[in-house]
Amino acid sequence: MKFNKNLRNIFLILFATLALSACSTAKKSQTSGDVYTGSDTVEYLASGVKDRVFFATNKSSLTSASRETLRKQATYLRKNKKLNVTVEGHADERGTREFNLALGERRANAVKDYLMTYGISGKRISVISYGKERPVNSESTPLAWSQNRRSVTVKVK
Amino acid sequence: MKKIIFILFTYFIVCSTSNALIKVDITRGNLDPLPIAVSPLHVESTSENLENLDTKKLGVNISSIIEKNFKSTGLFNPLKREAFVQKPDIAHLKPRFEDWRLIKAQALVTGKLSVNNNKLKVEFRLWDLTASKEMIALSFTTTPSNWRRVAHIISDKIYERLTGEEGYFDTRIIYVAESGPKNQRVKKLAIMDQDGAKTKYLTLGNELVLTPRFNPSNQMVTYLSYFRNLPRVYLLDIETGKQEVVGNFPGMTFAPRFSPDGKKIIMSFAKDGNSDIFTMDLETRKVERITEHSSIDTSPSYSPDGKYICFNSDRSGLQQIYVMKSDGSNVKRITFGNGIYGTPVWSPRGDLIAFTKVRKGKFYIGVMRSDGTGERLLTENFYQEAPSWSPNGRVLVFYRETKSGAQGKGFSAKLWSIDITGYNERKIKTETDASDPSWSSLLSK
Questions:
Q1: Among B152, B161, B336, B399, who pairs with B170 as Cys (CB 3.0-4.6 Å)?
Q2: Which residue in A97, A110, A129 is closest to B211 by CB distance?
Q3: ipTM for this model
Q4: What are the φ/ψ torsions at residue B179 (nearest 5 degrees)?
Q5: Which fold would CATH assign to domain A33-155?
């Protein structure tokens, strides 16, 4: 009896450990730091040109992955000289509304500035901040929040 | 649109205000609410019935609103009408004090009304049942459609007499009415009486609107609108419906608020990723820069004397609250606690600043002295922010959002209020989901 109980406990612990590690690997594949690295919500301006980059909480600095995305956007914009874009800046729901508006504006401008350093005229890029008003993922989870901390480059029609 | 409706005040008796035995201590919270009996107002039999107003029911309706107002303060305990021992008209002439004391009432409100020639005449008296004497007697004449306001004004007078503080019942709240899914919220400006009655929508919901704020000296409102996808601060006259963009800024303006004299709008202007604070004089249209810093400076709010401004900045790295002189000099950080701070709002009494604090994934509404000392957190929740003061500086209204599941399931936004004592937390009923409340000053002042 006692042996059985111990065995069962061991199995339970083993199972819990497995479940936990499964969980953490799932998370790892989606975010780094708290910057979203997955592609679930991402759309494309053209083949291979992602439309958005993601940010850490309260930050507007570009990760190396973000810079790579933006270099591709710049190349695409250089090839399509008549195309203008709007960069939308967004924040997650875990901040105050007014501060989030400022943060979204700062994020959108971080993208605009980077595109300009690759030769895209500032006149072709307008920015708009939506703060926390337009989440792409409406769930209240750290993963959703990381998907919502974003700047999206949108073609102007 | 209607012009501001005037209520005629005619004081017919003002009784001795000294020697009253009952007094409500507002600073302690609702531990021992004062038992008060609000006798239905007696309706004079000569009263005319009006097309869209049942005059016969007016007496009960007015006293019900007074009771509801009192209950909402947490300071009073309105007693059940069934226990009342005297007919309203007789009690109004002279209460049998010992009979009212039997049902444990300490204060009694009586009154009568009449409607003649399209005029509503109301008089009421407040009686101190412990001292067996009249404390206040007033009468008003107004248009019958104003009957709700009469109830609120009576509530204010009684509240003032019993607490020694100005009331806040004859006021309105402007807010953002929300509907639709979380990722495509439709937002409209809405206005209602402080008790949730008489909701009116001021915009159609075609564009995103945020953060409406009342002018403390009149019925103007400033807010943020995404009209034509250009987020700008607007000025709206809620009586005429007329609106205009504030200033001619080449980028987003946001986080607007009026100066205490109502003559200026203070707001943030974002340019090239940097938000600074500016003012615009509504008469001269002159724009003035107040802060110049590479950080985010936003959520400005004046002290009631107009000499100082508190605001939100991340110049230290994280969101904190700062105070400066109104010309932008002498900037001082006042929050140093654990966590981040936002949405500072100066109390109309001048002594306190209300704020939102975020710490370890929880949101708090709190108050502190204007030098940052004496921080008190009043309420903790998953998400809440944007406190706005009642005109007497005793109550805060704010909004709260719930945690949502996949696809935003279970998401809601509601208005709440809490006393600065930390007691008496209440949900304010609204027709739709609601956020960004702003409390008006007293309308009858």
A1: B152
A2: A97
A3: 0.92
A4: -155, 165
A5: 60s Ribosomal Protein L30; Chain: A; (3.30.1330)
